[in-house]
Please model this.
Amino acid sequence: MVDFSKDPTARGFYAPDRFESNVFDCEVQGRVPTEMNGAFVRVGTEWLYPPRFADDSIFNADGFVGLFRFKNGVVDFAGRWVRTARWHEDMAASRQLYGYYRNPFTDDPRLRAQTIERPYLRTLANTNVIAHAGKLFAMKEDGPPYELDPKTLATRGPMSFEGRYRSQTFSAHPKIDPVSGEMICYGYEATGLASNDVFLYSVDRAGRVTREVRFKAPYVSMIHDIAVTQRHIVFPVFAYTTSLERLRAGRIHWAWDAHLPTYIGILPRDGEARDMRWFKGPTRSIVHTFNARTEGSKVILESPVTETNPFPFFPPDPGNGDSAQARHGTTIRRHVFELDSKRDDFSEEILFEQSVSGLGRIDDRYISLPYRYAYTGFSDPSRPFDESRAGNLRGRVTNCYGRFDLRSGASAAYFAGDTHTLNEPVFVPRRPDSPEGDGYLIGIANNLAEMRSELVIADAQHLEAGDLARIILPFRLGAQVHGNWISEDRLAFA
Amino acid sequence: MHDLICDENRADASGPSARRLSRRGFLGRAAALAGSTAVLARLSALAGFASAPRGPVVGFHMDRPYLDPSGAAEPYHPPCGTRSGEGMAEIATVQLLGQFGYC
Model:
């Protein structure tokens, strides 16, 4: 039996869905651009069974993939569980066997010894979903990626890249170099729980591992995302940390520690571990990056950055900082690292005063290259919000997408509606050879009043004009972490 | 209100030279103090500062509710009801029955 009634967060719009579905030729308001041929694929979290601990993180819920297939202006939707080993174990037991986020010491005794020894068995593949070398795979940074059938979304199983990928973990943010076509990926806590080992890999466009570099981070931390340039790889190490002691005590994996400095590792793309250079700066949270580039002897990184704990479900231990601040703490910042300098500090500049969400995207054709536009969501409390129909969430939800022009300093905004909250935006080029920024900004808008999710499509160069189209699902989608546009020339969809 | 309480306390704590309180005077001061304390508690509650620790609260962060065991989060109050039948209220009964048969 499944009983979510004791979970006070599983209410209203956020009540569990727990069903797989197909919707053929989705209802559309407006007109879907016919040049969009491919799929918007998103992954997020859905509890198959209620969490064992009421204050657990939503990041510990099962992975659920949604795929919007675009073909000649028609959109079909499919939603499926990512059937990980953990999903199967829970289904067989008909209950939640797994404890706190990334803490196997809190698992059910029937499998605790196994998950302590092999914590990667606990992965939920719930954080990102990408395509590379003709394969579609979902991943979470605590275990291997899971391959999915792009036509049916059936789970094919964990990936090992023919045994040549030897880290226990696989980051949720590999980077695909648009010039070489290779995928740069890595795993932190690579040798086990609370290890500070990081394994870095290059995987060529055919899916073969061509390079491995192993190094140690200054302290074990959430290296959730990286950035790459044509010559360097950038590793942010920031103030979340853990230890085996903490895990044995039954605590959630991460604790924020405001006493910890930020380290940024810069590694030449053709370098070895000894070539890593660590820069050090004040406490920051850099969960995601926009992009980076190398200009002469400088590496330049832009990211959404906050100075405090962005995740309230990973609180600090007493004396180690404040609980999570409101969303207004995150701003788009530029960090510059002088490779010719003997100093280990770096400069920081706030590029836009607007507080933004921590989810940053660009036109992915410009990863590792000089670029102009950054896209992210933000909350604009001056916009209309109907609290009677959507709840007391004015100023607390992402209700706008922003395009931030790094060259001119200008910004533009798309507003989703007075009962809507937006998930991460994704940029879709109008054509493969369109200039940067010429295309569409798309993303899921949750309609809190009508209890349904909608995929919005806006002209990325005219965000203020509102929707070009809005694809209407007749039900709610579960929480999304990340999504991507995959054109049909990269993957064989149905 | 705080000054009133402090003044009362200062008067009572003025040392050997303080005048002795009659029983009626003591009861009167106690009643005044209790009343002012109650008002202060109400004001404190209105200002959002609980005089006693709060239990866990459902907050809202990154477009999702979450349970804050510390009780410090701003509470999230979802709207009443789910997908409403508000739109159906506009339709005449005859039309409604014709559309849905048994509702």
Observations:
- Chain A has one domain: 12-487.
- The domain at 12-487 of chain A is CATH 2.120.10.30 (Neuraminidase).
